[in-house]
Here is the input.
Amino acid sequence: MTLRTGHIGLNVTDLDRSLAFYRDVLGFTPLAEGKEEGRRYAFLGDGENLVLTLWQQAEQPYASQRAGLHHLALEADTIEKVREYEEALRVYGVDFAHDGVVAHREGAGSGGIFFHDPDGTRLEISVPSGAEGAPAPSGTAPTCGFF
Here is the structure.
């Protein structure tokens, strides 16, 4: 048996703010919300499956220098869809790690956009091909590893 990712759980500082971001900007579908003893949570899906759970139990934003989640990578169907997300994220005012679509490394056809959610969690939306000719900010090193 080979394991595969079931869903991702993220601690957030403000569930309402994070729910709006993941629902309204990234398009996840709310499946359920709950509350118990000072904690709130929301389950989000892709229309068929649970993909992401947001847990309001963090008191501080994401810290990239601590062990744990490095970044959450999401895959789009086409480079055009990546650009649509980029536009929506710009309108929302997110913090981008790089300007526009970048390649995963020099000469790669894969690439995407790299940005941060409201709590500073690093996110990527990419495609396996379609980013040919895009700049590679980290040269031959993986772009996703250094933001």
Remarks:
- Residues 79-92 form the longest helix (14 residues).
